[in-house]
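FAQ: What does the model actually see?

It sees only this:
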Amino acid sequence: MRWLSKTTVLLNFPTFHPSAEAQVRELFKNNRNRLAQTPHWIIDVRRNDGGSDSTYHPIVQAVVGNSLLHHMVEFLATPANMESTLRVCEMEAPGDADCVKWAQSMVELMRAAPPGSYVLPPGLKSAVIRVEPEPPARKRPQRVAVLIDKDCGSSCEQFALTMRQSWNVKLMGRRTYGALDYSNLRPHPLPSGQRVLQYATSRSLRLPHLPVDAVGVLPDVLLTPPVDEAGREREVAFVRALLEGRPMDPPPGR
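And it is asked to produce this:
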């Protein structure tokens, strides 16, 4: 988190891995008062390697003041998927009791379904759910730019799809990686013992109407790719100027 001026803050999130969730929550808790007084936010998720949707939940809470529509995923019920789902918490979120509870409930649903069929996660009965802002009266930024690029993948792309539903948000940069339609990777150790295959166990119920894997998530404002790290900083400066209403030429790119 870096304040670029009295009115603009830059928040950089290089990952949404579950291990970063506590840090993200602490970041917003410790800086809530100053953030509430800052009308312009730049959220940089360029090169974000994804992770877990729950990690970016505090960001959505802090920014989005309107209701959101979330398309759910459905899981393929197979013996291998049941086994790998039971192992995923130990590998990705050791000691997380909520993860274990969810995984066990998910496996129970898979066992009750015909092999090769798809099932919704525990507690869900609809392909789309509506989520209201929480808390609704919270003071939120006036203008938010989310910087995306070709390295933003998986949960980073879900973050972009969620944020673009907010009336005060614009996506800027380049299209994302395109690895979201089939997700919830599960580990499968290979016979050599030296490699672990990660494979998808779910598919999005956005399909076939809104695919991401083919083209990525497209920006609202296209910026040409920067040629170096200095170019990435100039990109931030340009977006800041847009938010603050100052004239500035777009940064050169390749």
